[in-house]
Write a structure and sequence with these properties.
The chain has about 375 residues and is mainly beta. The protein folds into three domains: about 40 residues; about 130 residues, Immunoglobulin-like (Sandwich); about 180 residues. Helix content is about 15%, strand content about 40%. It is built from four helices and 27 strands. The protein has a six-stranded antiparallel β-sheet, with no helix packed on it. The longest helix has 22 residues. It is globular, with a radius of gyration of 25 Å.
Length: about 375
């Protein structure tokens, strides 16, 4: 009612200012613009997508709407990490393609919200900071079917996925029965599995020459082994997590075994270097955090670093995230190039030299993806 009253007042003012021959056309345009605006204020569906704290998961992961209806989609980020949301046409392969395109944005990624320009995208919400909300309005597709959505922030796309179901009767869809990401199982008989939260275990892995190795199992079936002596990820594997039965039988200290399928990660000793790629750094390991996605903290030649690791889309690689405090010279991340595909959001991958060079000006927050070909 208020909108209609304001419309009549505006019409009377316009009538005094414009000649009659222009008046009718102008009023029709104005009327339909206001009707469209009023409709946009009241969408047919208002959907709130939250984030599961520390799990790299959306909540809910599925929602349903009618074809050709107005949808308001809200991303409520209650997590401790930045997230976005990209809704697209296609299958999971399309989501993997978009996630790779987002990573290839490189230094433009943050500016573009890690949302690539692509015709398959129906709607997108750019980067949402922890504790913040953002929304987007769009019209649901005419075609009935499933439309995937994903967080394309580097390293998040493996498990931060969901589906918009376009159906004639959304109330007929039992959303509670639909699971997008694996929830894992509980440990038994010496086998440690991963549930909805990441699992971090100090272990001695058979065949690994380190007394300070830390195994990390991520929701969704990606696992890796971090070596706190050499400040490197020694290996990654998909599937089940660990078998610690030999360690338990020997009352501690026995070698444990990884489960699942191992893949190479191309690591070199002390892969992150400051100022000189060929100089072994002076290092200090400062521990790790179990909150959310596990975070390893260390110093390299006095520069403080925080590192996280997540799985890559093709199941044979990892994405490293780095936060670096006040680097004044370029950084180098060493990778053995044989059989590896490398992408970075900062600097350049130089396969002949065997490192990614990150300029000091881009080093505060960057991601490097390493995949076995």
């Amino acid at each position: 009612m208020r909108l209609f009253t304001e419309y009549l007042l505006l019409v009377s003012l316009i009538k005094k200012k414009f000649p009659m021959k222009y008046f009718t056309s102008f009023i029709l345009i104005l009327f339909f613009s206001i009707v469209r605006f009023a409709t946009a204020e009241k969408p047919d569906h208002e959907i709130v997508i939250g984030t599961r704290h520390g799990q790299l998961r959306f909540s809910p992961e599925v929602f349903a709407v009618k074809p050709d209806t107005q949808v308001k989609l809200i991303l409520d980020n209650s997590d401790e990490m930045i997230h976005n949301l990209v809704l697209a046409k296609g299958s999971s392969k399309e989501i993997e393609r978009l996630s790779n395109l987002a990573l290839k944005l490189g230094e433009k990624g943050m500016e573009m919200g890690f949302v690539p320009e692509d015709p398959s995208i129906i709607a997108a919400i750019g980067l949402v900071q922890p504790g913040k909300k953002a929304s987007v309005h769009f019209v649901a597709p005419l075609k009935i079917g499933d439309y995937p959505f994903v967080c394309t922030f580097p390293g998040h796309s493996l498990t931060m996925r969901g589906v918009m179901k376009v159906v004639d009767d959304p109330s007929s869809v039992n959303l509670a029965e639909i699971k997008i990401a694996s929830i894992g199982t509980t440990p038994k008989n010496g086998v440690l599995d991963v549930g909805e939260n990441a699992r971090v275990v100090r272990v001695h892995i058979s065949g690994v020459d380190s007394g300070r190795s830390i195994a990390v199992g991520l929701p969704g079936g990606f696992n890796y082994l971090f070596d706190a002596d050499k400040l490197m990820v020694r290996m990654g594997w998909t599937g089940s997590f660990l078998n610690v039965s030999r360690d338990r039988r020997s009352r501690g200290g026995g070698p444990c075994s990884i489960l699942g399928t191992k893949f190479e990660v191309g690591s070199s000793e002390f892969p992150l270097r400051v100022g000189n790629a060929n100089k072994f750094p002076i290092v200090r390991f400062n521990g790790y955090s179990r909150l959310g996605n596990p975070e390893f903290k260390y110093e390299i030649d006095g520069v403080k670093v925080s590192q996280t690791t997540t799985g890559s889309m093709n199941g044979r690689g990892l994405t490293y995230g780095f936060k670096v405090m006040n680097a004044t010279t370029d950084l180098y991340f060493l990778i053995k190039p044989e059989g590896m595909r490398v992408s970075t959001t900062a600097g350049e991958w130089e396969p002949v030299s065997g490192y990614v060079r990150i300029p000091a000006s881009e080093s505060s927050n960057f991601f490097i993806s390493v995949e076995q070909i």
